[in-house]
Design goal:
Number of strands: 25
Largest sheet: 5 strands, parallel
Bound molecules: flavin-adenine dinucleotide
Low-confidence stretches: none
Shape: globular
Structural class: alpha/beta
Helix content: 10-25%
CATH class of the largest domain: Alpha Beta
Number of domains: 3
Mean pLDDT: 96
CATH topology of the largest domain: FAD/NAD(P)-binding domain
Distance between the termini: 36 Å
Radius of gyration: 22 Å
CATH architecture of the largest domain: 3-Layer(bba) Sandwich
């Protein structure tokens, strides 16, 4: 087992009668349940989901839903056909791996195998003022209702969520201010030099970089220097964090997420973790990484299902990371994983802004970002880890 603390060897779930408990009701869960049934697992599956909705897709929330193009982002998840018991509005509050029990507020459930797929939750800033975040469909519908012409919308964070929210708010006729701690937009994700080339994308936004937010109060956003930025709507988009509180004392190895190997196995036999909650080992980077992207949560199910059915036998999962974002009328694709000190080569788009960024280390492609360059993404993805010259 690479990376994560070695899981004890163990047998797989009995395909006829093994009891699987899945905590979390998002994309990773939907994919895991359907993969297990496809693999002829016939034992009982119980899904616990803190949300009151069946699994749905989140990327459209900050795009089509905010733009008013759709309200329903349900994922294919036919409870009857899959023969899954789904308990909506049910939050796991504790885990005991020694007696294989998940604790709810008023009862405990016993399992033979457990899948932890609880995703991540938005980071909130201090203060008593109303601060919207965007993680659930209800969040998106609540925010959309606030995006009225002329409304003063203050977005905190100039990265993916901030830019997508700003895009929707502008489309709705709002006056948009974006407050960013770093000197350039997207600096945290792409580095300052690359981020600087996206400045013109924000032309219709009052973008204030190198700006520290102290708190969100009822009269607006309070900055570190004492200034108050008035707002009708405040949206905080400063990142997400897996909620690991309910796993305390469980014996599961955690860091920023639940540590897993490339088969989604944790350090405890018969417990897998997948999707945004997992900090999975990657041979590409030689580290445990939080992926926090749709592609990972969608495709890791095959490895997790394999591990559940044959603990030491399942396929490995370590794809070249991929994510996309749609913002300011542009479509971005990113593949790979760059380190801050990688070499970066940038091509500009016809308007002078960012067109492509290519990161490499000692001549080997580590990551590629394309703006409105979708046809190139497959080639870029297959070239990651190979000489950067092969991209030419
Ligand atoms: C607005 C938005 C836009 C995005 N856009 C993109 C994009 O453009 N491209 C991209 O690649 N990715 C994007 N993502 C990320 C992508 O959606 C996630 O990576 C993916 O949803 C992760 O799936 P998951 O199943 O791991 O977690 P989630 O989808 O978060 O599901 C986890 C579920 O577990 C539930 N839960 C949490 N704790 C408990 C508990 N203790 N007990 C029971 N249930 C619990 C949660 O309520 C939630 O329903 C976006 C995400 C958001 C929020």
């Amino acid at each position: 087992m690479s990376g994560a603390p070695q899981a004890p060897t163990g047998a797989g779930l009995d395909v006829e009668s093994g009891r699987l408990l899945v905590v979390g009701g998002g994309l990773a869960t939907a994919r895991l349940c359907s993969t297990l049934r496809r693999k002829k697992f016939r034992g009982p599956i119980t899904v616990l989901s803190a949300e009151r909705r069946a699994p749905y897709d989140r990327p459209p929330l900050s795009k089509d839903v905010l733009l008013g193009k759709r309200d329903d982002t349900s994922l294919p998840f036919d409870v009857e056909k899959l023969d899954v018991e789904v308990r909506l509005g049910t939050r796991a509050v504790g885990l005991s791996t020694t007696d294989r029990q998940v604790h709810l507020a008023d009862e405990s459930l016993t399992y033979d195998a457990l899948a932890v797929a609880t995703g991540a939750a938005p980071v909130r800033l201090p203060g008593a003022g109303r601060q919207l975040t965007l993680r659930t469909l209800d969040d998106a519908l609540a925010l959309r209702a606030q995006l009225r012409p002329g409304a003063r919308v203050v977005v905190i964070g100039a990265s993916w969520i901030g830019a997508e929210v700003a895009t929707a708010a502008l489309a709705a006729g709002c006056r948009v201010t974006c407050l960013e701690f770093q000197p350039e937009p997207f600096a945290g994700a792409l580095g300052e030099d690359v981020g600087a080339l996206t400045r013109s994308w924000w032309d219709d936004v009052d973008l204030r970089t190198s700006t520290a937010v102290a708190s969100v109060e009822t009269d607006g956003v309070h900055l570190g220097d004492g200034e108050v930025v008035p707002a009708d709507v405040v949206v905080t988009g400063v990142g997400v964090r897996p909620d690991l509180g309910w796993l305390e004392g469980s014996g599961l190895a955690t860091d920023r997420g639940v540590l897993t190997d490339t088969r989604a196995r944790t350090n405890v036999a018969q417990v897998v973790a997948l999707g945004d909650v997992a900090q999975r080992w990657s041979h590409h980077t030689g580290t445990h990484r939080l992926a926090e992207h749709w592609d990972e949560a969608s495709t890791v199910a095959a490895a997790a299902a394999g591990a559940l059915l044959g603990w030491d036998e399942g396929p490995e999962h370590d794809p070249v990371p991929y994510f996309w974002s749609d913002l300011f009328g542009r479509s971005l694709q990113y593949v790979g994983a760059h380190a801050p000190d990688d070499d970066v080569h940038v091509d500009r788009a016809p308007d002078g802004s960012l067109g492509r960024a290519v990161w490499s280390r000692q001549g080997v492609l580590s990551a590629w970002l394309g703006v409105d360059a979708r046809p190139e993404v497959v080639r870029a993805r297959t070239t990651v880890g190979r000489p950067v010259t092969e991209l030419a």
